[in-house]
Amino acid sequence: MGRKGKGYEMDLAMLCHQFSLILKSGIHPVEGIPLLYEDTVNPKLKKALESISNEVVHGSSLYLAFEAAKCFPTYMTTMIRVGEQTGMLEPVLEGLSRFYEIQANIRRRVRSAVTYPLVLAIFMLAVIALISLEVIPLFIEILTSLGGKVPDQVDLFIVLGNTLKNSVLYVVAALVLLIVVVWLLTRLNKIRFIMDKIKVVNPFTGSMYKKIVTARFSGALSLTLKSGMTITEGFGLVSGVLDNDYVIRKIREAVNEVSSSKPFWEAIRDTGLFPVLFVRLVKTGEKTGNLDAMMEKVSHTWQEEVDASLGRVVGFIEPVCVTVLSLILAGVLLSVILPLISIMASIG
Taking the model in full, what pTM does it have? Predict the structure, then answer.
């Protein structure tokens, strides 16, 4: 499930943190979930917790209860499943709390970074519309009444003004239709698979996405290995935390190869999903018999790398947006001032 509103990630972080404290204190989830319900302010989460409490009281597992609430991200519900089946629900919830707190901070920083450029862009569009709809037509009317000739530079703004007057509703309708069509296409499995593959293989954000996959995969797999599961069993359980059809298919292929006695590190290397350093560390952990500890360490390392990379990206957003919009605004103003000067010279 996607984000349910402003601040939803922070609500999830607080929920997971409180739930982990309840489990740490020895309170059973049947008794603990009503306590979460009482302390929750978000009305949607409150309603979901009420539903979860009823499901758990009637014998449902936590994972199925959270999934049935249809209010939580797939990553969260799948990790709860991993924690529940491995007997390590408390550390899973603590990890989820840190994860969603980081997501909330990143979202807040992105929102802060794009606010000023967005205001500048709206102002720029308003200026262009005002000039095209009001200022230029007024000067043209004065010029033609005096018998002058309209300069060639003004033609662009005449066309733009006429387009805004006559076609704005059609343009808005076309944009809405395009958004709806794209949304419907993403519901199709083949289209979603192609889009998921693009997330991994594209040269712009593919490297970042692979780091996210590595952090999630290694963190979940370390829990399954610590609980005594085999690599094959752990593979099948953690594939759901990846939330990407292309990645899940690759992981399933790797599971089949491991089942056919292929070394674990070779199987994940052949997927092409993981960084070379990660594969080498896994190879070392597998040969020394400390794969679970190695996976846990790798998970923390790559999560820190993801956080640092996202921080650098967010830091570039505002200055880049401001610079680009400033250049566009300067070009627009010049293209407006020059025709106005020509009109005024013709009037004079």
Answer: 0.69
